[in-house]
Design goal:
Number of helices: 13
Oligomer: single chain
Largest sheet: none
Distance between the termini: 22 Å
Number of domains: 1
Number of strands: 0
Shape: globular
Radius of gyration: 18 Å
Length: about 270
Amino acid sequence: MGFWEALISGVVQGVAEFLPISSSGHLVILHKLMGIKEPEIFFDIFLHLGTLAAIFIVFGREIVESVTTKKRIGFLILLSSAVTFIIALIFIKNIEAAFSNVRTVGIMLVVTGIWLIAGNLMRFIPRDSIKNIRVARDQFLLSKNCEGMTVFKASLIGLAQGIAVLPGISRSGATISTGLFLGLDAQAAAKFSFLLSIPAIIGAFLFKIKETGFNLPGMNVNYFIGFFISCIVGVLSLKLLLRVLYKNKFHWFGVYCILAGLVVFLFLK
């Protein structure tokens, strides 16, 4: 991984991690275009750590609240993360194989696009015409500090995040769209989505370190260049996404993903 590859990868990661267009999918496509034949999974995790730092910068106050005054949110994040972990553990071999197949990424981008558009459309349907999906115990567990989040909703969002480990499925897009579909407002869905990414990114990093026997393969200064670039660009992208989400323009990312997915599937092999 050279300097320019690391720089460009950092920019792509910073943009695609928070904008719901799949950072992992775009990195697979980028590395394909760069002629990198083997998946740079460990380098990609370094890029994800950069965007993790961006989340701490933007959502620092909410992170502190989740372990202090709003512990129920912290509990629901852990519950949702446990669901994600189970899904990822079951399909880990298929996930690794998907990273080497760029056409699979194209298909998953189309799926992401449909998911984003469907989730955004739910915001415009009158609430009275939607049959609420609820479980009795969720009413008991509902806290005023949870902004409408319940155990049932957290579990489904965790399931969505588990599916999003496939390259081409946007993690932020899948979790935010699922939150919108379940009746959360844009602010609550976005906040929960990005808080939920913290244990997911840390878990992926620790898993990869263990898998490599604490031997960081080929790591050099370019890894840290990618880290810092993805962090800086990530902060800017995160703020942009929040503005777009609140202005009801989320579906345009879905249109982009469908078009990009079709181009990748038809022209890249």
